[in-house]
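ugh ok fine here u go
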Amino acid sequence: MSVETLTKNSTQTTEDFLPLLGTDHIEFYCGNAKQSAYYYQSAWGYELIAYAGLETGVKDRTSYVLRQGKITLVLTTSFDPDSEISQHVRKHGDGVKYLSLWVDDARKSFEETVKRGAKPAMEPTVFKDEHGEVVISAIHTYGDTIHKFVERKNYNGAFLPGFAEKHSNMEIKPIGLMYVDHCVGNVELGGMNKWVEFYENVMGFKLLITFDDKDISTEYSALMSKVVSNGNGYIKFPINEPAEGKKKSQIEEYLEFYKSAGVQHIAVATDDIIFTVGELRKRGVEFLYVPDTYYEDVMDRVGAIEEDLEVLKSLNILIDRDEEGYLLQLFTKPVEDRPTVFYEIIERNGAKSFGKGNFKALFESIEREQELRGTL
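structure:
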């Protein structure tokens, strides 16, 4: 039976033992961080704010820190072909290593999650420089992905100790990105419930919404998804797994090319999706194609909106509505050579949901891309 429910009592905890202030940063391990940083500055309008590398005394890697609104991306490349970073890139291609969470107490965050069953990745460690100190701890999650807990209340530097302030030497034109709306993980068949339970039991998240294979399916492929959210709703993690279908689903394709579970896409919020998507298209970012037929009856489904439908149609922007309002969204094609990581641009006008009404159109669009790649 199809379910889309807001679940109030999926965990028994009344006190939030893991209060999260938001997403601190997302770190990608890359084959060439310098060129990746250029892409995110020129195409996406991120400002370069900090750097670590040979010039700052770091001998084994280089990292570029980029920011737009409240979104911070870190792009890291290793100089050592045998390092853990290089092994990650060799296995996965460019991909997300750290989903780092901003906390008030990194020690307590580590203790509370480890005692509930989290696998430790980094004991609480203090990093200091002339700007103060940061405490960081970390735990493992799905695949090779790690959650860092970052406590920075006693720090006023550009990013973290070991990083020097650095600015773009090109004109940067931001595109209106504000914050990370949600991050989606793809896990292996049978893994979804295990990781939903991890977030519920280990991190105190609540199950927000469930989508089954009747909600998310086409003639050829299907997937299942559950969305978990922390207490204040700042952090939302949809978890996807493949479902039985006639052909290979996008989740199976991701797992085949990423070589494990991992972060599938990052949804970034804007309050003017027409401007944001228009700028991205001008700068060469590719989006999934949605046929004109999608727009023939969309207004019957979603009702009145403020935007001009013809403008949304010209940019291929999708529309959906829930009890709270409506949303506008669009997905890029993969931004790496492998068909793995991509982005969602989302503008929420009251809606709290994830665009259920657009699933079929989106998945048919993804299947067209899979067919071109010969992986459907």
